[in-house]
């Protein structure tokens, strides 16, 4: 369990994290989402004791990270996969970490196997692809067999196979009862991986929700297709519906139920070829929630969709 309570971090005049409170529970993947500069990395660094909070607290299993005995056996983290000694082999990197943290050498072979690097363990990590570096960083996080794991943007720059591998690994770790906090600015990826979502913008909590709740809260009305769309649009607008042209063709109608739209069309003798009630995609819901909270650009450009 991770508990973040009224956590605040100020860098000079900049407020990176602003009275943020949330909990991350065991047995689930919790997605940590927000546009660039939202404060995700800073929050993770505060949880890991790599920076001190200006005020508030970040606790792991009820205690600050700094007071944990044998911290690698309680908490594992992947923050920056590139932070490696380039001349050292994957095997030596992990052996060195294990030795420094009182972890048996047999565990090194296990985690190398688990992340699929056993075959390249003696190669210099500096020559690894980004995907291999991510796997090595994940192996290091898993080394102490911790209950709590934090991953900062682990899918960044990975190919679809790598993305799928990470997704399955996260799901597997959560199924073992571990507490998983996974940051990303890709809602499309979180939709497939996360059970819960903590959404932040400008250091503040925007939403603490589940994937279905978020989708449900942002119903998008009804898609209507008709060969007499313009006439139907006028009729619906007259009756109080909000009608817009849908980018995919047809009409996007909000503020009216499917039955009411059908009845109106029938009363005016207008044929209807399709009526589909729609939930917003999670991506749309996310963009609406975080609109205007991005650091340098709008979230729409940041997500690349
Ligand atoms: N060491 C630091 N010194 C000064 N400002 C910092 C420092 N670390 C972070 N910040 C600022 O704090 C804010 C939050 O940054 P942070 O990296 O936590 O966001 P993020 O949500 O992880 O973003 P990204 O998705 O870009 O990684 C940003 O405005 C950033 O410039």
TrEMBL record:
This is ABC transporter ATP-binding protein. Keywords: ATP-binding, Nucleotide-binding, Transport. The lineage of its organism: Bacteria, Bacillati, Actinomycetota, Actinomycetes, Streptosporangiales. InterPro entries: AAA+_ATPase, ABC_transporter-like_ATP-bd, ABC_transporter-like_CS, P-loop_NTPase. It comes from Sphaerisporangium rhizosphaerae. Residues 2-227 form the ABC transporter domain. It holds the Pfam family ABC_tran. One of its GO terms (molecular function) is ATP binding. Gene3D superfamilies: P-loop containing nucleotide triphosphate hydrolases (3.40.50.300). SUPFAM superfamilies: P-loop containing nucleoside triphosphate hydrolases. Signal peptide: none annotated. Belongs to the ABC transporter superfamily. The keyword Nucleotide-binding applies.
């Amino acid at each position: 369990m991770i508990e973040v309570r009224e956590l605040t971090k100020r860098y000079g005049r900049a407020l990176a994290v602003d009275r943020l409170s949330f909990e991350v529970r065991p047995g689930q993947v919790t997605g940590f989402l927000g546009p660039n500069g939202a404060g995700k990395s800073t929050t993770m660094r505060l949880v890991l004791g790599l920076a001190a909070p200006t005020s508030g607290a970040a606790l792991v299993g009820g205690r600050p990270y700094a007071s944990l005995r044998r911290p690698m056996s309680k908490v594992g983290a992947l923050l920056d996969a590139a932070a490696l000694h380039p001349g050292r082999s994957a095997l030596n990197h992990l052996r060195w970490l294990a030795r420094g943290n009182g972890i048996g050498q047999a565990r090194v072979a296990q985690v190398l196997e688990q992340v699929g690097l056993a075959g390249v363990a003696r190669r210099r990590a500096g020559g690894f692809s980004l995907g291999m570096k991510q796997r090595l960083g994940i192996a290091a996080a898993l080394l102490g067999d911790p209950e709590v794991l934090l991953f900062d943007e682990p899918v960044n720059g990975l190919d679809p196979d790598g993305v799928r591998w990470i997704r399955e690994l996260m799901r597997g770790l959560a199924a073992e009862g571990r507490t998983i906090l996974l940051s990303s600015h890709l809602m499309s990826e979180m939709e497939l991986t996360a059970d819960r979502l903590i959404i932040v913008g400008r250091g503040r909590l925007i939403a603490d929700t589940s994937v279905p709740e978020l989708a449900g809260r942002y119903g998008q009305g009804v898609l209507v297709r008709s060969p007499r769309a313009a006439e139907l649009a006028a009729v619906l607008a007259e009756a109080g519906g909000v009608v817009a042209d849908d980018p995919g063709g047809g009409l996007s109608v909000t503020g009216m139920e499917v039955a009411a739209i059908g009845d109106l069309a029938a009363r005016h003798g207008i044929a209807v070829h399709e009526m589909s009630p729609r939930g917003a995609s999670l991506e749309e819901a996310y963009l609406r929630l975080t609109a205007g909270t991005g650091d340098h650009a709008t979230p729409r450009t940041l997500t690349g969709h």
